[in-house]
User: Which sequence fits this backbone?
C-alpha cells in the first residue's frame, strides 16, 4: 500500500450556509458523511480519492486530507510533533510548500507564529533526512499544509486543492461585486434548476450564475477547467492516472440540454466580460446574452427559474436609489414571469421588502463576510395575491365558484 492508497479523514470546507448542498454532492459521489458543520462536511477516503473530489465538487472550497492528529499544548510541542511526521515521503527536498492554519490555542496570539513553527519543523525534518531544505512561502499554487489547532488538539492536513476551488479559472476579468463561483453553484442547486425550462439571469454582471448554470445542466465537472491543484505537487502523484480520470469524467458530460440560459445586463462592459468568461469556460455558445435593462429581458413562455442578484447598496446614498430598482423587480416578476419561480439573491433585507411579493422560501448564505439571503417567490401564487380584489381575475374566480 502506498501513501496514496491509505484511507484517512477528508474535510471539505465551504462558505457558511452551503454545507447542505455540499453534503448532497458528496453523497452523490458515493462518499460517506462522517460529520457536518456550518462550513464543512467530513468524509473519508484515500489521497487518490481527493483527485476525484477536487474535479467534481461544485460547492466546496477546499478538500483537506488528514495526515496526522496529535495533542500539543504550546508551540514547542507543536514543533516536536510536527517534526515526527515523515514529510520527506510527501514533499520533495527541492519542492515548495506553504502552511495555512486555523488556530484557537491560549499560547498563540498570532496564527502566523503557528505557521512558522510548522514550517520550521517540516523544513528541518526534510533537511535532516534528505540533506536539503525545500522552499517555503505564502503562494498556494504548490503544496499546502493546513494546521487545525483547537485547545491542545491538532489536526494536520494537506490542502489538496491548493488554490480554493472557487477559482475555477474562467473569470479572468474582475467586475464589481461578483458572486463566488462555488456560492453561485450552491444557489443554482438550491433553485433545483438542472437544465429543463429556462434559466433567466437579468443583472448577470460577470456571468457567474449563467456559466455555473450551464455547467450544471451539462453535468460538466468544474475542476476540468483548472490545470493546477495542490495534490499534483505531492510525491507519488501519478500524472497518467490523473489524465485517465479527467478523460473519464469529461466523457460523462453532455454537450447540450433542453432548456435555455438567458443572461442580460444594462452594462455593455459587463456583458462583454460575461461573454469572455463564458468563452473561457467553453459554454458561450449555450448562453443567450443581451444588453438591456433587467425589465426588458426576454422571458420565454417555457417556465423555469428567473434569478437576480442586484447590488445591495453598501455605500451611503445608494440604498435610496436602489429602492426603485427592487420595487421594479417585483413588477417585472409579476408582469413578465408568471410561469416561473423567481429568486432574488441579496445582502439587504430592507431593500428586498420593496419587491412586495410574499416569499415562499428564504435561505441564508454568506458572500464573503456579507450575510445574504436567497429569496424564493412562487410567481403564479405571488401574482394572484397581489391582484386587487376587484380585478378581472378575482371576478372570474368568483363567477366560477358561484357555478359550483
Ligand atoms: C451585484 S452585480 C451582479 C454580479 C453577478 N452575480 C456576478 O457574479 O458577476 C449587479 C449587476 O446588475 C447590473 N444592473 C444594475 N441595475 C440594472 C438595471 N436596471 N438593469 C440591468 N442591469 C442592472 C449591474 O450592471 C451589475 O452588473
Assistant:
Amino acid at each position: 500500500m502506498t501513501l496514496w492508497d491509505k484511507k484517512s479523514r477528508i474535510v471539505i470546507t465551504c462558505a457558511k450556509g452551503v454545507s447542505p448542498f455540499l453534503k448532497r454532492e458528496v453523497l452523490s459521489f458515493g462518499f460517506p458523511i462522517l460529520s457536518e458543520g456550518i462550513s464543512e462536511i467530513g468524509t473519508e477516503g484515500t489521497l487518490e480519492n481527493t483527485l476525484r473530489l477536487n474535479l467534481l465538487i461544485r460547492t466546496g472550497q477546499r478538500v483537506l486530507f488528514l495526515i496526522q492528529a496529535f495533542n500539543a499544548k504550546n508551540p514547542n510541542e507543536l514543533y516536536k510533533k510536527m517534526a515526527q511526521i515523515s514529510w520527506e515521503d510527501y514533499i520533495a527536498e527541492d519542492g515548495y510548500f506553504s502552511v495555512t492554519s486555523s488556530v484557537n490555542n491560549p499560547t498563540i496570539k498570532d496564527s502566523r507564529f503557528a505557521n512558522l513553527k510548522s514550517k520550521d519543523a517540516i523544513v528541518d525534518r526534510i533537511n535532516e533526512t534528505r540533506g536539503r531544505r525545500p522552499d517555503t512561502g505564502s503562494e498556494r499554487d504548490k503544496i499546502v499544509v493546513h494546521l487545525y489547532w483547537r485547545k491542545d488538539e491538532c489536526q494536520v492536513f494537506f490542502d489538496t486543492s491548493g488554490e480554493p476551488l472557487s477559482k475555477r479559472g474562467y473569470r479572468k476579468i474582475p467586475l464589481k461585486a461578483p458572486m463566488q463561483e462555488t456560492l453561485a453553484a450552491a444557489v443554482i442547486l438550491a433553485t433545483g434548476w438542472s437544465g429543463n425550462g429556462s434559466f433567466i439571469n437579468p443583472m448577470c454582471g460577470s456571468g457567474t450564475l449563467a456559466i455555473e448554470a450551464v455547467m450544471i445542466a451539462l453535468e460538466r465537472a468544474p475542476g476540468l477547467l483548472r490545470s493546477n491543484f495542490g495534490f499534483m505537487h505531492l510525491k507519488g502523484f501519478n500524472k497518467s492516472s490523473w489524465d485517465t480520470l479527467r478523460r473519464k469524467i469529461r466523457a460523462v458530460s453532455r454537450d447540450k440540454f433542453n432548456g435555455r440560459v438567458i443572461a442580460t445586463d444594462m452594462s455593455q462592459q459587463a456583458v462583454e466580460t460575461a461573454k469572455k468568461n463564458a468563452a473561457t469556460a467553453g459554454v458561450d455558445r449555450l448562453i443567450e446574452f443581451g444588453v438591456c435593462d433587467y425589465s426588458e429581458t426576454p422571458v420565454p413562455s417555457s417556465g423555469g427559474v428567473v434569478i437576480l442578484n442586484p447590488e445591495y447598496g453598501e455605500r451611503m446614498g445608494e440604498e435610496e436609489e436602489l429602492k426603485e430598482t427592487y420595487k421594479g423587480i417585483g413588477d417585472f416578476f409579476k408582469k413578465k414571469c408568471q410561469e416561473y419561480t423567481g429568486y432574488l439573491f441579496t445582502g439587504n433585507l430592507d431593500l428586498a421588502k420593496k419587491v412586495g411579493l410574499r416569499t415562499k422560501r428564504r435561505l441564508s448564505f454568506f458572500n464573503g463576510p456579507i450575510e445574504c439571503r436567497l429569496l424564493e417567490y412562487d410567481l403564479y401564487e405571488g401574482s394572484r395575491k397581489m391582484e386587487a380584489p376587484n380585478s378581472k381575475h378575482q371576478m372570474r374566480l368568483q363567477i366560477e365558484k358561484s357555478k359550483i
User: Anything to note?
Assistant: The CA atoms of residues 279 and 285 lie 8 Å apart. The chain has a mean pLDDT of 92. Residues 175, 177-179, 202-203, 205-206, 208-209, 265-267, 270, 293-294, 309-311, 325 surround S-adenosylmethionine (CB under 6 Å).
